[in-house]
Amino acid sequence: MDRFDNVRVFAKVVESGSFAGAAAQLSISASMVSHHVKGLEERLGARLLNRTTRKISVTEVGRAYYERCTRVLADLEEADRVAGDMQTTPRGNLRVNATTYFGASCLGPVIADFITRFPDVSVELTLSGRVGDLVDEGFDVAVRLEPLPDSSLIARRLAVYRVVICGAPSYFEKRGMPCKPADLSDHNCLVFTGSSFYRRWHLIDGNTDLRFPPAGNVSSNHPSALLHAALAGHGLMYAPTYVVGEALQAGQLVSVLDDFVPPVTVRALYPHSRHLSTKVRAFVDFLAARFGPEPPCESLGTSSPSKSDPSLMSLLDGKD
Q1: Residue among 229, 237, 163 at smallest CA distance from 202
Q2: Could you state, in order of their start, the residue ranges of all structural domains in the chain?
Q3: Is 49 strand, coil or helix?
Q4: Which residues are in coiled coils (predicted)?
């Protein structure tokens, strides 16, 4: 008896809630279903299901085993699918969801190249700061900076972008430069409301993980509005370099607390591999290849006080 057959049958019992339901889905007898489950329990030396004359329930061991074995089964199914889809051309409508600024500035050009490479695929890109339910809302892929909201989704890492806290030289001349995370409470911090990820500024001070709640006189759900305010010297901005990179290079903005601000990871999120279509796989693979070690929009470097305006260095030392 194939061990993976036992696992597949057990998974169907858990999903259907009964031996009869699993038997119907697998087109085998209920006694054969029982035989597979019994064989699996004997091999593991553990009870996976509690049985009564009326119903079955999954044991704690059975639940843990089910959650792990479904991933293995999905990987096997994907391996079979990859072999079968090798000669299949991606086609159809692909619905993609991404954060507003990142989608427009970094993802848009990549999508243009993707449809050139795969002309049988049409892409519908929806830009939104809200993280909804990918499957329920009908999206095939989401490109996000936030942590994985749904553990049933697969997350493929695409790129790592630097995040900076920055302000205009004129702001630092008036307010001074923060030297440690605690100093931020004395500064006007521009608040981005378009994404839950940026509503608390993430800093790491030694072994301490900090989530600083910014407070200031300007807030917006679009980073461009905050960028204008920062350039005008009205406050500090917390943003990835694909938003502020050009201003940093030009010396219009200066980054501070660089050693305390961790980078952000961009991921492609898509439904479990058992539902993965050729067009989705082609798109995610294309993104991974294009973003790679030097992702779009990340070639722009940060600007330190010494590079933009040597006079600002005195602010770091607490001098006039």
Answers
A1: 163
A2: 3-85, 92-154+274-291, 163-264+300-316
A3: strand
A4: none
**Which segments within the chain are labelled E, that is strand?**
49-51, 56-58, 92-98, 121-127, 141-144, 154-161, 163-167, 191-192, 201-205, 208-212, 219-220, 237-240, 254-256, 264-270
Pairing of strands 208-212, 201-205: antiparallel
Considering the domain delimited by 92-154+274-291, tell me its CATH architecture.
3-Layer(aba) Sandwich (3.40)
Reply yes or no on whether the pLDDT at 307 is more than 70: no
Mean pLDDT of the 8-17 span? 90
The overall average pLDDT reported for the chain is: 84
- 166/239 Cα distance (integer angstroms): 8
Our CA dihedral for 174, 175, 177, 178, rounded to 10 degrees, sits at 180
CA distances from 315 to 243, 261, 280 (A): 25, 20, 51
